[in-house]
Amino acid sequence: MATPHDAFPNRHIGPDADATSDILTTLGYGSSQELAAAALPASIAQQGPIGLAPALDETEALATLRGFAAKNTVKKQLIGAGYYDTVTPAVIRRNVVENPGWYTAYTPYQPEISQGRLEALLNFQTMVEDLTGLPIAGASLLDEATAVAEAVQMMARLNTKAAKKGGVVLLDAALHASSINITRARAAAVDIPVEIVDITAETVAAREDALIGVVVSNPGTTGGLRDDLGEVIAAVHEQDGLVTVACDLLAQVLVTSPGELGADIAVGSAQRFGVPLFFGGPHAAFLACRENMQRKLPGRIVGVSVDAEGTPAYRLSLQTREQHIRRDKATSNICTAQALLAVVASFYAVWHGPQGLREIATAVHGRATALAVGLSEAGLTLAHDRFFDTVTVQVQDAAATVAAACDKGFNLRHVDDTHVGVSVGESTTDGDIAELLQVIGNVASSVTTTEFTAQDGPLSDLLRTDDILTHPVFHSVSSETQMMRYMRRLADRDLALDRTMIPLGSCTMKLNAAVSMEPITWPEFAGIHPMVPEDQATGWWELIDDLEGRLAKITGYAAVSVQPNAGSQGELAGLLAIRRFHVANGDDQRTLVLIPASAHGTNAASAALAGLKVVGVKNAEDGSVDLDDLDAKIEKYGEQIAGIMITYPSTHGVFEEHVREVCSKVHATGGQVYIDGANLNALVGLAQPGEFGGDVSHLNLHKTFTIPHGGGGPGVGPVCVGEHLIPFLPSDPWADVTVEPDAQEGRPVSAANQGSAGVLPISWTYIAMMGDEGLTEASRMALVNANYISRQLADSFPTLYTGENGLVAHECILDLRDLTKQSGVTAADVTKRLMDFGFHAPTLAFPVAGTLMVEPTESEDKHELDRFITALRTIRAEIDEVIAGDVAVEDSVLRHAPFTAESVIRDDFEDAVSHGHFSREKAAFPVRTLRRDKYFPAVRRIDDAYGDRNLMCSCPPLENFDIEADIESEN
């Protein structure tokens, strides 16, 4: 039995009883309950406990999870359909997936302290570019189906001539059903006409209407590889259309690339590069394109720039495309992607190198060929003569064949009544092929594929002739020692939560407990294909049902779907539910959504993707929604209003007193209320969005419920709805594409029915171990810690907005605007200087330019809070030196920050770095405690403009880093 001291809430919440008492004394409150009551409007305060089951200790939680896992049945997964058996190298699983240095990092918006994960993501981009034969690739998308949808919208943005003529997009009937269903839903929302056709050069040439573009699947969902892809691409281009190829990265190791054949865009999933099945996700998708399309690319692009000393450095490029800047005009609504999984895939390529990947691809293809030959010799008919890894064969009774294979330990794909599919994976053996021949074809035969070469098989005239993965990074590892040290070296270049507080407002970088992380790699969870029979995933379904029920109780809503695999997709799902609800009620005219000026950038971008037009609502001086402007917009637009999107507590870091009034005003006009759950960490156990006026919310499990951010993803964004919106929750992405979707139902938003199920045990474990009181106290302590920072920094950096009692919610906005006017020191200067203190910066310039938004979370202890406060007070003293005229801002330590180890030990430090205006000690060790534990950034301040002017989004030549020159000088 755990003692109270060892109970999980005490391990999760940073300040102990004594520290909490000290903090509350500083703030003038006797308890966390008293402070929370003073901060939270009484009009929305939750009455009574959440009503969850009693909290479990760590041992009990793991035992319960073992019970769930035991109800899942692990078989050899040969179903395919976009999800394939792969082997996660132990060195990558241990050193990345299970390493907090990798999984607790945030999106690399501060690139100087993110060089490690940026390099790994740049490796991912380079890998994708090489294998697809296209020069530009992004740093990962959410899944293959949404990547196809993103490509369709990208083609529409690029081919405006055809789009303006009402042009159509043709979807290959050979695409995965999820890709077709997701794309149809997304295209319908923004009025892009799509048709599902059997695509050939002849059918394309016969089109008389305007053609925006075509999506071709190669291989197709049942495994067929095209020998006419070049002809199809040429025919589409002849019609002034664009071509997207949905492809398989492992097949591209062997097969001629889409880029070489003339494709404009390539999309797909990187799952089979070492990422477990995870019951459907998270898996990194990719999108690559031609060079002139880079500014229309969705998601993030990692690029190469230079730092203050001209050293090559990595950063996120062309961010002006993204939702936080472009809002409803952005290229996509993607914020959280699948960065950690892209990192895993990139390390998989580094670990195996081009030769290893060829061996894996050749072995997979060889065993598929052996299966095909054996089945043909048995008199069975194959669906395709050309294939990479998937053999689809005609049988008398598909259900009986699938059942017989299941009895032998294999899951096959039930294609239709008379066809089954077998997708060979990395761990499939010759013995497995022999057994499958017996099961499917009644053939008793031994199989040996060790001497197989692709040149002798069915792909002989489709093979690529160019070299792949030629950059030295993919040839740099030949031993596990080298690999281990490479991953450690990159991790050491980053600042993650395992090293320091990450006080990012609105991002909730809290503890990701090891006990919560442990179960996700258990084979009984990680090894389940998303399309297995339900009785093989009983444990998964029970866990998901239980989690959805707990989330519904916490939020006060009637039902929850965990399908959305990012917060942005949760937003989209919620808005699609609102839109479809109105259409079902005959209110087609309700196409406007009200969004306050302070809203998250993704809100406006998601609204645009849902086919809604954005109407801005002003904020009052105190940061709340301006009720007069809201009334004016309601009077002006009336029955055109679909709803309002509000964030609560607001992005200004306060609990708005009149949130119920805002909800009531919108409801009175017939609109729905969407409450963004990004800031739910201030509400759990204290107030319920579904009770104080929300009709729908999305949550961020990667914020409030401790799924780690993974350097930019994965995330999970469940959508929660009231009773009347339940019919419009996300639907099955694998529904029959020949059946028109029911107008009274929802639409799918992710490729897998349960989205990124693989990481759901993390949130389940957290909620189960915290219990009612633990979750509620976590919310209270989030308020306590934020108010402590706000109060302690009041004289140095005043808080911009506070609530009725001078309190903030779970975050505070520090106002630097007046200091900038006096000194010229910007908020950006402060973020870079904080790196020299070993801190990740707060959120910069959002939601108010010239400010920093700080969210410490409940997990940070008083010592860490005080260390952060000391750092900012020291920086304020450095600003005061500029204000006093002791040093010009251009010569100040602030403007030159951050400092690398090399920059402060160089002989010409005073001439080249400080110009005699500050010492080495002041640059590197501004407070004495840093002498014991110092983090040095890998690069100095990066030139963002240079990186955008000179976009390079693949691995630069090693000579750019002068490595050879350094070695020569050392020798």
Automatic annotation (TrEMBL):
Signal peptide as annotated in the record: none
Single Gene Ontology BP annotation: glycine decarboxylation via glycine cleavage system
Domain called Glycine cleavage system P-protein N-terminal: residue spans: 10-439, 479-725
Chain ranges of the Glycine dehydrogenase C-terminal domain: 778-899
Co-factor requirement: pyridoxal 5'-phosphate
Role description: The glycine cleavage system catalyzes the degradation of glycine. The P protein binds the alpha-amino group of glycine through its pyridoxal phosphate cofactor; CO(2) is released and the remaining methylamine moiety is then transferred to the lipoamide cofactor of the H protein.
Family of the protein in this entry: Belongs to the GcvP family.
Name the record gives this protein: glycine dehydrogenase (aminomethyl-transferring)
Organism: Corynebacterium glyciniphilum AJ 3170
Name of the coding gene: gcvP
